[in-house]
Design goal:
The protein is of the alpha+beta class. Helix content is about 30%, strand content about 15%. Strands 10-13-8-9-11-12 form a six-stranded mixed β-sheet, with helices on one face. Strand 11 and strand 12 form a beta hairpin.
Length: about 400
């Protein structure tokens, strides 16, 4: 029904900004339309304007409320979206700079719409680290912030409208939001790693590599160089060393630990955007199920955590304990230069074991499971007998 040239059917106009293309679209919707229907109509309208792109990794972000509209079956009324609301249609996976415990930088595509705990699980899977529940993400702080007790810079940009223009040129050109799988699981992931400074492009990694949480090393080493993460550089760059925080009191240590991210909230909702830097650290220092065959990267990162915690005096210890750790560190460095045995190679039996096995088979008889046995033939016991007939000479 029309009245004064306007529709009075209860519909209203909703403005949505497409961050990849830096354009806005206006849709006429009603309050009972679900979020999935809104995205479907938006993609249809973008398709009619000859914009061919895969939008499967995109979702709706509400900047003023600082929240994702991820429940696609919920309606606009249930979310509280009205005519004056401006939504952003943006990719869920964005570039994140990760600072590892061994002071190396890694660039990964991370899902900013899921909880931090789920994001850490995905990160550890790509890096080949088992038991991701031991790690979490920490905000990057400077020594000046720790001394004055100021909040990290990322937190004050939560409701910054300029910062809510979510995609930069790096995001739109390098990733383009194209996903060829299901939303939430990227099939394209780029890892960049350098000793201390980011920027060197590594090899792409397929995040959908088959594997389980107990066999992550074999699942993730197809696209990531395991040697670079399992053996850390001896001395980081000067820039990284200058950024190390050396707390001098319990208050400063408490301020560092106050930077842990909330595991039940997504990265976007905690004020982080594309190309931000976070620290991947061990939060719960209780380790179990350490296996050198599968945990080469994990053991090295745990060792680096202890090493730099002692060097920065973040961990209190005695002089004897420091000297003992230095001695262990020296032995670890000396052994790292020695060729290590291949833990993945199957152990072949040596000559002595082969001779013993052959002797056992010869004494116990042939085994059905041996390679020379034939299941279609009936085993027989046979041998040659030597018969000697004596001749008796009769004497008369």
């Amino acid at each position: 029904m029309m009245a004064d040239g306007r529709l009075i059917d209860g519909s209203w106009e909703l403005t949505i900004n497409v961050t990849d293309l830096d354009i806005s679209r206006t849709l006429r919707v009603m309050g009972d339309l679900h979020i999935g229907g809104v995205m479907f109509r938006l993609v249809e309208e973008l398709g009619t304007s000859e914009i061919a792109q895969d939008w499967s990794d995109h979702a709706l972000w509400w900047p003023s409320k600082n929240m994702w509209l991820t429940r696609t079956r919920s309606t606009l009324d249930q979310y509280g979206v009205h005519a004056d609301t401006i939504l952003h249609f943006t990719p869920m996976h964005k570039l994140l700079h990760l600072h590892l415990p061994d002071l190396q930088f890694v660039d990964l595509r991370v899902n900013f719409s899921v909880k931090v705990f789920a994001a850490v699980i995905t990160i550890c899977k790509e890096l080949g680290i088992r038991h991701p529940e031991e790690l979490s993400l920490l905000k990057r702080s400077s020594a000046k912030d720790i001394k004055k007790g100021q909040k990290p810079e990322n937190k004050q940009h939560i409701h910054d409208e300029g910062r809510d223009n979510l995609n930069t040129s790096t995001s739109s050109q390098g990733y383009n939001g194209k996903m060829h799988g299901t939303p939430g699981t990227p099939q394209q992931s780029t890892m960049q790693r350098a000793p201390g400074t980011p920027g060197n492009v590594g090899t792409p990694f397929n995040a959908n590599t088959p594997g389980s949480m107990h066999n992550l090393l074999d699942a993730s080493m197809d696209g990531i160089d395991a040697t670079g993460l399992a053996i850390s550089p001896v001395s980081p760059t000067k820039e990284v060393m200058d950024e190390l925080i050396r707390p001098k009191s319990f208050v400063e240590k408490a301020r560092i630990n106050a930077g842990w991210l909330d595991s039940s909230v997504s990265l976007m909702e905690q004020g982080f955007r594309d190309n931000d830097t976070l620290l991947l650290r061990y939060k719960f220092l209780t380790f179990y199920d350490l296996n050198p065959k599968y945990d080469a990267i994990r053991i090295n990162q745990i060792y680096s955590t202890a090493r730099w915690a002692l060097l920065t005096e973040e961990l209190d210890c005695t002089e004897e304990e420091m000297m003992l750790f230095a001695a262990l560190q020296l032995q670890a460095q000396l052994q790292s230069s020695v060729p290590q045995p291949d833990l993945y190679a199957s152990k072949e039996p040596d000559d002595i074991d082969a001779a013993l096995n052959e002797l056992q088979v010869s004494l116990e008889g042939s085994c059905i499971g041996s390679h020379d046995s034939d299941l279609t033939s009936i085993p027989e016991l046979g041998d040659y007998l030597k018969y000697l007939k004596y001749r008796f000479i009769e004497l008369f």
